[in-house]
Amino acid sequence: MDFDFQHCIRCTICVANCPVFKVNPEFPGPKQAGPDAERFRSDHEASIDKWIRLCSQCKRCEVACPYGVNPAQIILREQVRYGEGHFRPLASRVFANNYWLGTVNSIIAPLVNMLTPLKFIKRVLNVFGISTYIPFPQYRVHSMNRSWRWKGRRKNRKKVVVRDLLASLGLRVIIPKQVCCGLPALGNGDVETARKFARKNARILAGYIDRGYDVIYTCTSCGLVLTQDYPGILNAPDGKKISENTYNLHEYVLKLMEDHYIEPVFEPFHRKVAYHIPCHLRASGIGYPAARLLEKIPGLEIHILEDNCCGLSGSYGFKRSNEETSAKLGITSERAIKDVDPDILMSDCGACRMQLEHFSGIPGFDPSEILVKSLKNFKAGK
Amino acid sequence: MSGTYDVVIIGGGMSGMMAAIALADMGRKIAVVSKGDPVCCLSTGCIDLLATDGDPLKGVGSLPDNHPYHLVGEDAIRESLEMFRDIMSEGGMPYVGDARVNRRILTPLGRRKVTCLVPGTMEFADFHSDEYIHVISFKKMKDFYPDYITSRYKNAGYSIFDAGIATTAGIAEQFENRKFLEGFISWLKGLDIPEGRIAIPAVLGMRFAGDVCNEISAKLGRNVFEIPTLPPSVPGLRLFGGLKKALLKRGGDLYWGREIYSVEKLGNQIEAVTLAGAGRSARVQGNAFILATGSFVSGGLHTSMDAVEETVFDLPAYLPGGRESWFNDDFFAPGHAIEKSGICVDPFFRPVDPQFENLFVCGSILAFSEIMKYRCGHGMAIATGVAAAKACGRPA
Question: Which value does ipTM take for this structure?
Fold first, then answer.
């Protein structure tokens, strides 16, 4: 048992930072759900707080807490305990196995992409507790592992771009065989599956680290799981080693620049950008490296928006039970974006982009896509 | 992540943020390191300069000689408050008031609080007690009981609106919604409130509270003002949000939610600090450092049974005497001696002993500030923050 919760002085800074608490009165907020309720929990008693599932694990409370309490971690542990002791709804089971879902769906991608927008299918999904208020992500046949060549769709491009970008900077890039980081399983109360994924990835990544490689992530949520949960709740072998050798892509490029290992020349790119900071980038505590990197691009006007959670939180918003919360938060974020009146929307997180593109209608990009557009010495499609 | 900065500010509260913004305006590359969100989020959002009956700025002159305000000086205090007002206006959250005039604004307990600069939404919060006041509350809202206010004023009444949600942050979120605001205004119109002022707890939205307040005012033809609430305090969040926005706009870096676990010193220089957190520790290197970690509540100072410790650099802290002399028998008496404890600094805001050449200290961690006694919290944070930034940024 962890006694960090005893440090809580009930200042409510976490509550003020909780997006779910703001729009859903059912959720008592991180203070009550976390340190307050923790006093009454015991490993010898079953978990009974049904509302514990309403926390989206955005971790804004954790970043805000000045006393080191980490309400989100307390809640996560309880979510896991609740998941172990209760029947998990079908939607939770499906999303916990997002990885397999993705694997199957990418094989029959054209069929899935054709079916999901259909009204009838949507109704069936709704019956099973799956929300359809925003369009489903498009699946594609060529996954990252099998082919990295850009097939002509913008959304397929990111990982190709990252690989080619790093290669063009003179780095040896390997995309090892890997499975899901485990976050969807963890977030849906299935810690066993999450640990299985973590063990598998940990073995592979640790092997590369031992051979002198650094690990780079492009998804801020996967990155947070690798650095925080692998050595933590998922207890992966070599978790600490992975945590210490894993970098955010932009953080890594910045580091190379600061070490004068690379000296890229930035070409002007004239755009007004609303940069929505993903909650899990905030939670990583590494500052906003993409903003620091992209501010070197002449002509790029970046407006950092970090006060709102987009509300989707991975599979959280795709569940009927969270649909309303998710949509309300999406609209709040959209308002902040519209205030800036940007040409384009930028966010490191694919899920944030999916939600915000839907609500704002403004095209969303990953920072690395913009970086690539500006880097002079970058040669695409090697 | 590691990085090299001109100045690293430790502590993201009022003082640290003001110092950071001032330095960014001087063209310095800066980073702010903070354990979490600061105490100013819990504050009323008002800027207390000094609780005096008359001119607070003049009152500064009669404070004890060792009070940190004297290191700044009257003119510089006024200038720093002006700078603060400019920053908040730039973020769309204008403040009103004058450093030479205190106001007495209404609190949720019905009493008055003496303060100096207030958010635009509280411009009319200092009213004559003969004037009619109509208080609006929200259904099931916690820690806000209009009876407390109406019981103290003969000429007052209240009404309760059902916002569908009972928390301050939740209601504030609702006020961002046009439809909700219109519904609220038409409900107010239907109340047939007597001539006078309308007081609403401080929940009128997060980003454009001033506009919301003005609109209600205009549509009802009454002066409308906000009453600061207990935490979660929306005006406190707006204040912090405004400062953060200004800093980000100026290219400052934030390292949030991370604690410092080691400090590198070389002779009389601080070289770098290392941050703990998930994953790799981060080394943040700076040519100069500003310490703005606050006092006891914020964790800048820590008490053991018989000593007061500074938590980041382990600087010696001033103590008013032995433990028996720390406290006053009367809990509510203004000024327990322990409040005097903190870091003693030279005229350039550098700790007196040991002398680090590139370390500057500001805010409530300064010795002899006695914030509770003099009611000078935010004012002193702003004044010393900007002054420390100037001392730090001056050409060598």
Answer: 0.89
